[in-house]
UniProtKB/TrEMBL annotation:
InterPro entries: LytB/IspH (IPR003451). This is 4-hydroxy-3-methylbut-2-enyl diphosphate reductase. Its cofactor is [4Fe-4S] cluster. HAMAP family: IspH (MF_00191). It comes from Saccharopolyspora gloriosae. Residues 1-31 are annotated as: Disordered.
Length: 355
């Protein structure tokens, strides 16, 4: 799939650097004009960019097949595109042939997974996002200091499994409000909360307040665990949601941060919001009676998919200039995993990225 120049041309050129969209406009006939508001930042974060490029460089440097444990990032389009290029996605390392190359996904893995890979003589490249690694290190530090660690996150999510796996006998997961009552700690003065990186900022603070009701001396993480990309995308969607009859979030069903964007849009005043992988999933009924459509995307979504949504809307009458609602300009980049960097010195040509 290619980026649509038509959609890109419809973006307002750098003149909307404010946190709130322009006021509503009307047609000469006095009707409200159809508008599209486009959140910025949206889409790829630095951790996803790094993980996808890691797999692409691994393919180019070592040749297919490259095995990847779990989805490299939670996006259908990215996974399918990499599969076409020779990536084999597996659930566990025991599906990888002895001695083969396996990449660990951006969500991180528990130490036990590294040990399993070593026992099977696998060559590994760890594409864990450095901001997830930061939380792993916090778990290790607080476990060493003999704290009980309450990890706020979604049960069954790969990131949570990897993070909790750093100190399984010290970490308890808090997902739903009722989990707070089930927590058992050894010393109420030595309890710390940490979190998954892709949660709703507001909901997480509600959960923290609830935990504090039980453990008033609860310690906080040394710095935010919810990453810059997750919170920036939530701030951007909040800035435009109240103006929108409909907010379309491009992202996959298993993408935590994308799902949170739908929730945040609704809480911030959007009349309706839906999560879609592709433009063709937009149901015609969603557009009935709609004037202002907001568009954003999760941190694992290539922008080509957003451009296709803009094209889809354009064909249905939303064909004016797209107003970009900018609340932050992100410049963060992470260097590639060290296992790959040394081999790349011999083969420095950049591959074509899934964008
Ligand atoms: S969403 Fe945040 S933690 Fe996850 S990969 Fe992106 S930057 Fe890293």
């Amino acid at each position: 799939m290619s980026t649509s120049p038509q959609a890109a041309d419809r973006l307002a050129q750098g003149d909307l650097d404010q946190g709130t969209p322009d006021q509503d406009t009307t047609t000469p006939e006095g009707r409200r004009a159809k508008r599209v508001l486009l959140a910025k930042p949206r889409g790829y974060c630095a951790g996803v960019d790094r993980a996808v490029i890691t797999v692409e460089k691994a393919l180019e440097t070592y040749g297919p097949p490259v095995y990847v444990r779990k989805e490299i990032v939670h996006n259908k389009h990215v996974v399918e595109t990499l599969q076409e290029r020779g990536v084999i996605f597996v659930e566990e390392t025991d599906e990888v042939p002895e001695g083969a190359l396996v990449v660990f996904s951006a969500h991180g893995v528990a130490p036990a997974v590294h040990e399993e890979a070593k026992a099977r003589n696998l060559r590994t490249i760890d594409a864990t996002c450095p901001l997830v690694t930061k939380v792993h290190k916090e778990v290790n530090r607080f476990a060493r200091d003999d704290y009980d660690i309450l990890l706020i996150g979604h049960e069954g999510h790969e990131e949570v499994e990897g993070t909790a796996g750093e100190a399984p006998d010290r970490v308890q997961l808090v997902d739903k409000p009722e989990d707070v009552d089930k927590v058992n700690v050894r010393d109420p003065n030595k309890v710390v909360w940490l979190s998954q990186t892709t949660l709703s900022v507001d909901e997480t603070m509600e959960r923290v307040d609830q935990i504090k009701g039980r453990f008033p001396d609860l310690q906080a993480p040394p710095s935010d665990d919810i990453c810059y990309a997750t919170s920036n995308r939530q701030i951007a969607v909040k800035a435009m949601a109240a103006e929108c009859d409909l907010v379309l979030v491009v992202g996959s069903q298993n993408s935590s941060n994308s799902k949170r964007l739908v929730e945040v849009a609704l809480q911030a005043g959007a009349r309706a919001s839906h999560l879609i992988d592709y433009a063709d999933q937009i149901e015609e009924s969603w557009l009935e009676g709609v004037t202002t459509v907001g568009v954003t995307s999760g941190a694992s979504v290539p922008d080509v998919l957003v451009m296709q949504v803009l094209d889809h809307l354009s064909q249905r009458g939303w064909d004016g200039e797209v107003e970009e609602v900018t609340t932050a300009n992100e410049k963060i980049q992470f260097s590639l995993p060290k296992e790959l960097r040394k081999d790349l010195k011999e083969n420095p040509d950049a591959p074509k990225s899934v964008r």
